[in-house]
Amino acid sequence: MSDNDTILVDRDEGGIVTLTLNDPDERNALGEVFVEQLIERLAEIGEDSQARVCVVRGQEEIFCAGGHKDMLMALASGEVAASDIMVSRAMLELPIPAIAAVEGHAVGGGLTLALCCDIVLLAEESSYGCSFMNMGFTPGMGTTRLLQLAVGEYIAAEMMYSGRFVRGSHFTQRGLINDVLPREKVYRRALKLARSIAEKPRYALELLKRSLSIPKRQLFEEARSTESMMHELCFAKDETKALIEEYYPKT
Question: How does DSSP classify residue 186?
Fold first, then answer.
């Protein structure tokens, strides 16, 4: 695998797989090729019998900027159906535990991607937010339920309605995130957790993952259905297209 790949996968002999989002020029935005590669890599990791735990990370400054403008405009023009973007499901269905080491900023679908993991570590200095409504459309990728599960009903509602960004330190005494750390400690903490998990047998990890993830997967399927209907209405509006165009030069 070359350094030009947008998704990098590194395996060690102990069963720890590190999946790195590696498109810094596009801020790891969820574009068509990026999403296709991510889904492919997740499938490969799931089929690797030696893999026992997966650490998901981005760059130091950016984890994932959410939907790529081209992808969102394709949604708005009807060229792509929102239900076709199944990266959330691919992450949720990974058969081994996944740890999100979110060192950098995570926006919209980028934050949701992290929340699809089993363990989530945030950075005190980084910003996290749900930007969907800033662009005139309702949250997607399962956000309407997964964010509630992660931070609670009321904080999730505030984040989704307002579209404002908050520092990781905001969650130190709130929500159900595993840990909020100084940025330079996030990946180290993730690896420490990964090593303790990788000591366990693969078959037992798979069974436990399947059991523990049932509520989250059910919530995702419930959310996906509702979100798809809301997107059909929102993306049919000219105002949504205009807001997407207006939003991106500012980011």
Answer: H
